């Protein structure tokens, strides 16, 4: 029996992935021909990584299932085991929820678990942000998901070209832009002075109307043993500059504990430094913080995606975003505190860059929802070249 509306299951496994898919969730929910079914799992359920599920529900989305699959330890072994647990748990949820199509985001290990489970169950799989090039295990995972997916929503034309070179059918590959830009389109810029105090966090009081740095540095999974030394270099540079600093905790990947240790030691050893730590922001709040920052520092893709769209100066550290497309707002440096300090000072003195629509125009969510509503899925894949 054919349903009146196509049931789209979206799996959200981290705070970052919620930011990348929120506009699509809203567009699917509001689409006359689609029904949104939402699974939240992995680090998106955990307090120490921001508990994004609370933000998701506060934004008005109904969570139909929760999947607990994270194995503690933050090392390559626990990442592999968490992927396996994710496959097992998601398989059960897909059987229960019976989706017509599953949409998965980007390149995380819970994303791979989603792709494997859906593919083996002959459920059409949609994938956003395929074809991009970066460092770490994310590179391999992203391309593996591309080969499992049945419809692709790439952020750029170059990414679409790469997906086609992997043998995907041109009729299944669409340049939609990155959905993370959608909340920025009509963003109300500027922050009240008490913004950070009102949003919790821990550490020094920071006046949001004064220049501040925004730092978000995740571990690099292929370099996880060096995570502590890497974060020490960034902290040394930030300390030398002395600007008020807003810092978000790292994600759950291998090496996360080492970065967290470095942050805790810094706070203990520098009690007077103007640093405030946060676990998470709502999507729109994070965008406003980014738009107000004097410079974004670290290795998050948001500096390259949203940062380019907003024209915010950024310093990208290390190899995590290796070869990812970037705009003029980004300066790349290695794991050296002197080079990081020099780059931050240069970017702060430069000021805002022109807005660059490299990753889209801010209308990706409705575009993807329309494609999901009308696509003819074929789970029997073959190389197209």
Structure report:
The chain is α/β, with parallel strands linked by helices and 385 residues long. It has two domains: 6-184 and 361-374, Glycogen Phosphorylase B (Rossmann fold, 3-Layer(aba) Sandwich), CATH 3.40.50; 195-350, 3-Layer(aba) Sandwich (Rossmann fold), CATH 3.40.50. It contains 13 helices and 14 strands. It has helices at 15-30, 52-58, 76-97, 109-120, 136-148, 157-165, 195-198, 227-241, 256-269, 283-292, 306-310, 337-350, 364-374; strands spanning 6-12, 34-41, 65-67, 101-105, 125-128, 151-154, 173-175, 202-203, 213-216, 245-248, 275-278, 295-298, 314-317, 330-333. Strand 2 (34-41), helix 2 and strand 3 (65-67) form a beta-alpha-beta unit. The radius of gyration is 20 Å and the shape is globular. The mean pLDDT is 95.
What's the story with the biggest beta sheet?
7 strands, parallel
The geometry reads as globular
User: Strand-residue fraction?
Assistant: 15-25%
The average pLDDT score comes to: 95
Amino-to-carboxy terminus distance:
35 Å
The first-level CATH class name of the largest domain: Alpha Beta
Portion of residues within helices = 25-40%
Annotation, overall tally of beta strands: 14
Question: What do we call the CATH homologous superfamily of the largest domain?
Answer: Glycogen Phosphorylase B
Per CATH, what is the topology of the largest domain?
Rossmann fold
Structural class comes to alpha/beta
Compute the CA-based radius of gyration: 20 Å
Read across the widest sheet, the strand sequence of neighbours is: 3-2-1-4-5-6-7
Give start-end ranges of low-pLDDT stretches: none
Number of helices: 13
Task: Give me the strand/helix succession.
Answer: EHEHEHEHEHEHEHEEHEHEHEHEEHH
Number of domains: 2
The CATH architecture of the largest domain can be given as 3-Layer(aba) Sandwich
């Amino acid at each position: 029996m054919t349903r009146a509306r196509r049931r789209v299951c979206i799996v959200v496994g981290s705070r970052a992935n919620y930011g990348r898919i929120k506009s699509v969730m809203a567009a699917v929910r509001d689409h006359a021909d689609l029904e949104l079914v939402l699974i939240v799992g992995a680090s998106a359920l955990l307090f120490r990584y921001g508990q994004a599920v609370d933000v998701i529900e506060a934004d008005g989305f109904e969570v139909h299932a929760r999947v607990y699959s994270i194995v503690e330890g933050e090392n390559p072994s626990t990442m592999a085991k968490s992927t396996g647990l994710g496959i097992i748990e998601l398989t059960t949820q897909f059987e229960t929820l019976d989706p017509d199509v599953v949409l998965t985001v980007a390149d995380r290990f819970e994303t791979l678990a989603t792709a494997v489970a859906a593919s083996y169950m002959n459920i059409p799989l949609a994938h956003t942000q395929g074809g991009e090039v970066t460092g770490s295990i994310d590179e391999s995972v992203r391309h593996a998901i591309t080969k499992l997916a049945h419809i692709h929503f790439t952020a750029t034309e170059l990414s679409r070209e790469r997906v086609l070179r992997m043998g995907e059918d041109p009729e299944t590959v669409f340049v939609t832009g990155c959905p993370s830009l959608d909340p920025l389109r009509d963003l109300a810029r500027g922050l009240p002075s008490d913004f950070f105090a009102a949003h919790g966090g821990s550490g020094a009081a920071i006046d949001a109307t004064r220049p501040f740095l925004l730092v978000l540095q995740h571990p690099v999974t292929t370099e996880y043993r060096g995570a502590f030394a890497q974060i020490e270099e960034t902290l040394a540079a930030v300390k030398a500059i002395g600007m008020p600093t807003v810092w978000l905790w790292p994600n759950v990947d291998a090496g996360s504990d080492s970065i967290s240790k470095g942050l805790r030691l810094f706070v203990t050893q520098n009690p007077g430094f103007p640093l405030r730590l946060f676990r998470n922001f709502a999507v729109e709040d994070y965008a406003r913080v980014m738009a107000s920052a004097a410079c974004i520092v670290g290795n998050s893709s948001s500096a390259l995606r949203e940062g380019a769209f907003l024209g915010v100066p950024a310093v990208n550290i290390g190899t995590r975003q290796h070869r990812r497309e970037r705009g003029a707002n980004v300066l790349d440096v290695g794991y050296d505190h002197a080079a990081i300090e020099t780059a931050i000072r240069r970017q702060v003195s430069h000021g805002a860059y022109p807005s660059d629509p490299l990753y889209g125009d801010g209308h990706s969510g409705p575009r993807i929802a329309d494609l999901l509503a009308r696509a003819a899925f074929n789970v029997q894949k073959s190389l197209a070249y």
